[in-house]
Design goal:
This is Small ribosomal subunit protein uS10 domain-containing protein. Keywords: Ribonucleoprotein, Ribosomal protein. One of its GO terms (cellular component) is mitochondrial ribosome. The chain is an alpha+beta fold and about 190 residues long. The protein folds into two domains: about 1-50, no CATH class; about 55-165, Ribosomal protein S10 (Alpha-Beta Plaits, 2-Layer Sandwich), CATH 3.30.70. Helices cover about 35% and strands about 30% of the residues. Helix 3 runs antiparallel to helix 4 (about 135-145). The longest helix has 17 residues, at about 70-85. The chain is flat.
């Protein structure tokens, strides 16, 4: 019972354990002195070592969407600069291909089309990594304050789908691959079939 309590305390105080002793299978016999701050003058060592670790977000995407690309690009660059000033690591920033929307306005009380509009929805992303929880709240407040009218901000964890949507498909290459399949496939595939 004492051993499990000691292990839990040592897990909580990773910053105080000598890193050379962590590889051993037995419990570390020595614990180095914790880093003490001026505000910790009257706090006992065991209370300082039991402080929980600060939660950190691994990889987050700040996704900006809007109808004006110039505004989005300016907003994205401001968020990027503010994140760097705050000490948050910006991994990368990118634009995705525009989404084209066809919007139709109908005549009142009818089904006849009164007007038709072609709208482009642009998207910019800022990817931040290893963000402390306290800094994320401040960064989001700053991002909302900088956000221009008509634009939206979404924050989500990075996923594979977000990586794949960045790239524009090569239609000519896809057509050539389809023609190759229609003709019977490549030589390597023919050999496998035999």
């Amino acid at each position: 019972m004492f051993c499990t309590k000691a292990i839990n305390i040592l897990k909580l105080s990773r910053r105080c354990i000598n890193p050379h002793l962590l590889n051993k299978t037995s419990l570390p016999a020595t614990v180095t002195q914790c880093k003490r701050f001026k505000s910790d003058l009257y706090e006992p060592d065991y209370l300082i070592s039991m402080e929980p670790d600060e939660p950190v977000y691994d990889c987050l995407n700040l996704q900006l969407k809007g109808y004006d690309f110039a505004l989005l690009e300016a907003c994205q660059s401001q968020i990027h600069k503010y994140a760097e000033v705050m000490g948050i690591q910006v991994d990368e920033s990118w634009a995705t291909p525009a989404q084209q929307l066809k919007v139709q306005r109908y005549k009142p009380k009818g089904t006849a089309v009164d007007a038709e509009y072609q709208l482009n929805v642009y998207e910019r992303n800022v990817q931040v990594t290893d963000v402390p929880a306290w800094a994320l709240g401040t960064l989001l407040r700053v991002a909302r304050a900088v956000l221009p009218e008509g634009c939206t901000l979404h924050v989500h964890e990075h996923a594979i789908e977000h990586e794949e949507i960045r790239y524009v498909p090569d239609n000519q290459l896809l057509e050539l691959k389809q023609q190759l399949q229609d003709m019977g496939g490549s030589r390597a595939e023919r050999k496998k079939k035999r």
